[in-house]
Design a protein that fits this description.
This protein is of the alpha+beta class. It has helices spanning about 20-30, 45-60, 60-80, 175-180, 185-210, 220-240, 250-275, 275-280, 280-295, 300-310, and strands at about 90, 100-105, 110-115, 125-130, 130-135, 140-145, 160-165, 170. The chain contains ten helices and eight strands. It is globular.
Amino acid sequence: MNTLLAKTPPKPLPSPRTATSVGAELRSLHTAGELDLPLPGDGRTAARWVALAAFGRRDLTLARLAEGHADAVAILAEAGRSPATGALYGVWAAKSGGTGAAWDGGALTGTVRFCSGLSLLDRALVAAGDRLVEVDLADPGVRRHPDTWQAVGMDASDSGDVVFDGVPGTLVGPPGWYVHRPGFALGGAGVAAVWLGGAAGLLDDVLAYLRERGGADEHQLAHVGAMHTALSCADAVLAQAAAGDVDALVAGTCRAAAERSAVEVLERALKVTGPTPACRDRRFAQRVADLPVYVRQHHAERDLAALGRTVLGPA
């Protein structure tokens, strides 16, 4: 059976990790070519999602930055462009709470929230209205506000707000191209592979906890069986999707399946372990904090309603 989850989990990052250590690992992976993933939609989507799931299973903050870089490279390729040599990229497109960037025809202005890799990345693709703009993050008009990120979850992702004050940039694609291109759905489904990997990493930790204690009782085993089933179902959905054409319906289904598996794993993990590892094992506690923050890129019932509308079709 096709699967995105390897039988042997990747070695996690040393704990405790920091934005500095995650950034150093990201840069090392980039230098070694391990962020050069197959482009989505070219017949090797499954291999791309396997790599993204492995990043998520290893560490979600590392995966967040790796996925953002890989997504930016794929977007540039779809536009017929190449990334700057040696540069680490991100895609900053949030429009939370009425914020967002604007393009006045020559420069980028405005505030963008939830920008990961504030001090770690070299360049970013920034959504500004119906335009996508590539910017050099070394420009003095890029003002970073890491203090706006107060969450414990994903704390090492170097995230926060960015204020653009007349920053020059290069347009990528025509107006409206970013969200209407074929690769938009593929990119959204790729994020689901990271969520799946993050949930699998939490189950890895639960299993390690039980093995260290010498086994499990029937109630713990029931939860483990349910977590395994939830992950296997989402894994199968994504593996099947990666083998075919990914449109908005397929991408939405992948995201919903990965989100549901992550929520179930989170709910059951602490029922298996009790509070001990959440209080005494920093890596376990960090996974429990990271996963719900990252997976909330899925907008719960709002995204499910959009999926249902697509399934129902026109009245």
